[in-house]
């Protein structure tokens, strides 16, 4: 069976990405994507962006053969604000809520991973770096998926994330964190990156096919 790509972590120029939602969707469609989530960076300054791109997303969904999902990535916010920002994102229409995790690559506030896995409104903890056993256990209990990142720098923790997820049974995703056209990858490339992180073929398929579908289904999107 041939599978199509699903990427639940992408940025448009409504945060620091380079492309409009339409071009992002068009390029993803051409590279064989079945669904993408546009998850622009948000804090209290710009969380209303979620409503600004919803018309474009509806337009694309009505006319093209790709599912575009409205999302948000809570980024570098004070840890105490994460639950409230997640609720607000949901209220504004975000289907997929990510938090920008404690990557090895940026000075993300310590405690971000812990606050995120404890927030049931969070779907995905992006690039969770050196996530602890305790945090991974809570993530599992609260259905917060962990991300294997294909992005330069953020990917440095992938091996650790793959190991801990295997040990504790966390759901994994393989997402790009796309900011530029060249960041978008094919399904085959996602498989390679998962294998490179130490996942088995079976685990990679779960992370690229079953788990993203499971998250979308939870929010009423059936592919
Ligand atoms: Zn960014
Ligand atoms: Zn991101």
TrEMBL record:
InterPro entries: PHP_dom, PHP_phosphatase, Pol/His_phosphatase_N, Pol/histidinol_Pase-like. SUPFAM superfamilies: PHP domain-like. Residues 6-78 form the Polymerase/histidinol phosphatase N-terminal domain. It holds the Pfam family PHP. Gene3D superfamilies: Metal-dependent hydrolases (3.20.20.140). One of its GO terms (molecular function) is zinc ion binding. CDD domains: PHP_HisPPase (cd07432). One of its GO terms (cellular component) is cytosol. PANTHER family: PHOSPHATASE YCDX-RELATED (PTHR36928:SF1). This is Histidinol phosphatase. It comes from Methanobrevibacter olleyae. The lineage of its organism: Archaea, Methanobacteriati, Methanobacteriota, Methanomada group, Methanobacteria.
